[in-house]
């Protein structure tokens, strides 16, 4: 067992399976005390997935406690953080990993499909982070690690709800980093590539979709956890407000939106002048309107 995050208390949401489980196991293996949060349970036995992961951690000599509250409810989110305080007496890091997908083309997407995804990804990230914030502020330190996605950073087909929520998480993380910097609290994002139960629900009807799924199946979720452990550690004291990505053995660093061109005109602009001068000047800098996989090709060797 490593001591990289020794005695830090870490809440990992959506930790019953997939990437979240890998986070919980690796945090524990690196010395952290882990709140394993997941409301899912085995349909046959009724066992909560979180309890199963806690058992794995304890069998390996680590410390963990299960939380089965929902991130998508304000009061339940408070209970998730309280589980850390009640069991371990403090909280040092929140990993906002819980997520669902309800993929549908935008013109067919229902209100329920929109709200369900936004409630878990965006509202859930805010609720749990907000519950931890007063404790981080009081102890003058803490770290947030949020899961975003290239579906939000770049865009994707059939994922308007997921893309909007994941881009919203980036804005949330940046604002947390700015608002809480004076309290030595950090906030960063990870965009993971991995095959999990959530990505397994991605539609695979067209040849392009099937090819995308086959690529995802070759990306191991366990490869993402080391970056999350690092971002929670004291070694990452100078890292905040950033966006990273992990794909198999690669770690990415993403740029952020900044102004890249400007045009000034005395007296202001008319629609005609914009058409004649602004757009022709800007057009060479336009970004392609393509899904994320087109800009993140992967050919593993």
Automatic annotation (TrEMBL):
MF-aspect GO terms:
oxidoreductase activity
Q: Does the keyword Isomerase apply?
A: no
Entry's SUPFAM superfamilies? Answer: NAD(P)-binding Rossmann-fold domains
Alphabetic keyword roster:
Oxidoreductase
Tree of life domain: Bacteria
Query: Which positions fall inside the Ketoreductase domain?
Result: 8-206
Ranges in a coiled coil:
none
Establish whether keyword Oxidoreductase is in the entry: yes
Q: Which family does it belong to?
A: Belongs to the short-chain dehydrogenases/reductases (SDR) family.
The identity of this protein, by name, is NAD(P)-dependent dehydrogenase, short-chain alcohol dehydrogenase family
């Amino acid at each position: 067992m490593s001591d990289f995050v020794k005695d830090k208390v870490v809440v990992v949401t959506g930790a019953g399976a997939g990437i979240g489980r890998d986070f919980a196991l690796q945090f524990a293996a690196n010395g952290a005390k882990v709140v394993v949060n997941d409301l899912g349970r085995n349909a046959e036995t009724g066992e909560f997935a979180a309890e199963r992961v806690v058992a794995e951690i304890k069998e390996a000599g680590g410390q963990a406690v299960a939380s089965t509250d929902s991130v998508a409810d304000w009061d339940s989110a408070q209970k998730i953080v309280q589980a850390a305080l009640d069991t371990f007496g403090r909280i040092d890091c929140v990993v906002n990993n819980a997520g669902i997908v309800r993929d549908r083309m935008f013109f067919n997407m229902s209100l329920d499909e929109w709200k369900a995804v936004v409630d878990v990804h965006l509202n859930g990230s805010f609720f749990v982070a907000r519950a931890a914030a007063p404790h981080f502020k009081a102890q003058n330190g803490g770290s947030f690690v949020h899961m975003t996605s290239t579906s939000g950073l770049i865009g994707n087909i059939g994922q308007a709800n997921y893309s909007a929520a994941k881009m919203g998480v980036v804005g949330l993380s940046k604002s947390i980093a700015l608002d809480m910097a004076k309290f030595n609290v950090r906030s960063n994002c990870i965009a993971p590539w991995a095959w999990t139960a959530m990505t397994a629900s991605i539609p695979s009807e067209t040849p392009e979709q099937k090819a995308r799924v086959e690529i995802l199946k070759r990306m191991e979720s366990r490869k993402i956890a080391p970056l999350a452990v690092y971002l929670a550690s004291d070694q990452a004291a100078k890292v905040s407000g950033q966006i990273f990505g992990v794909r198999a053995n690669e770690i990415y660093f993403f740029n952020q939106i900044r102004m890249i061109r400007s045009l000034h005109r005395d007296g202001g602009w008319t629609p005609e002048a914009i058409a004649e001068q602004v757009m022709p000047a800007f057009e060479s800098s336009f970004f392609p309107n393509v899904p994320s996989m087109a800009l993140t090709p992967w050919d593993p060797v």
